Amino acid sequence: MLEVEQLTRLYGDFKAVDNVSFKIKKGEIVGLLGHNGAGKTTIMKMLSGFIEANQGRIEIDGADIQKDLKQAQQNLGYLPENLPIYPEMTVADYLDYASEMKGLTGDKKITEIKRVIQATDIVPKLLSPISTLSRGYKQRVGVAQAILGDPKLLILDEPTNGLDPTQTQLIRALIRNLAKDATVILSTHIMQEVDALCNRALIIRNGQLALDTQLDDLHESNHLLLTTSLDKGMLDTLLQPLSTITGVEEVSVEGSVCRYRLEIQENGNPLELCGEVANLVVSSGATLYAIDREHMDLETLFREVNEIPAGADTAEVKDAA
Ligand code: ATP
To answer: Which atom of ligand 1 is nearest to the CA of 38?
Structure first.
């Protein structure tokens, strides 16, 4: 659905986006994560055709954005970070204008406007001038214009920015619903947003793609966490018969309480191994304090990726994570 190859954007001499490549399949909800200034908005502006890339290629549903901007834009809805909403217009007039900009006319236009105002719950504000709306309502008007015409690709720059918890839930539910028929790429600083909404996270750091991970893979780490009284040497010997344990890393030692991270071979069964390791530890006469599969959360991963010193190359960042 969306293919991005070696995308680069300079502002003067400064490289805001540096050689970023990724592909997104139909129906995926992908979160673009990164600190302030990482380059998320610049990537989204290029994807929507709002600004041009200095290098690289973007293809939306088979249309090359540089060669065929009009066709590519027909398939996309874009919620910019700062929406250029016209303050003097009413919500209804603005949506009418936005529909025409998208090429919608006649009955199709009316049906679409009705659909989007209901989906974003802005019916009570239809006749209000945009200048009188709260930030949250303005954001909902922005989402409404982005989904006009049922686009195949939605590019949402911080879609829940400024919304109260109820409206955040409403917009998230709407995005999940839209993703049944469309592909969604959204940017956010909020980890829980990515956890709640996305199948996949792209972490941007200093303009580069530092990590591309499926959230299911992330939650299913191939490590066990073991806490026992055994020291490292004794544990290494004890685990030797288990060939699917490929590494033992000592995490911490506090008196007789030692924590380890055990690496499991790809074909190893984590649950069975938990049982086998537990049996071995207990039969050796040592104390088993705890054993479980490691669960890596996105927040930890994000912190680890961003803790790598500046100047490290992308491969190092990926390895460290
Ligand atoms: P935020 O989360 O704060 O919105 P971001 O990840 O979206 O940040 P961008 O807005 O893409 O980051 O900015 C990336 C870098 O490019 C930043 O260092 C920013 O200062 C710089 N930048 C963005 N727009 C311009 C511009 N028009 N001229 C010069 N520099 C710019």
So the answer is: 6
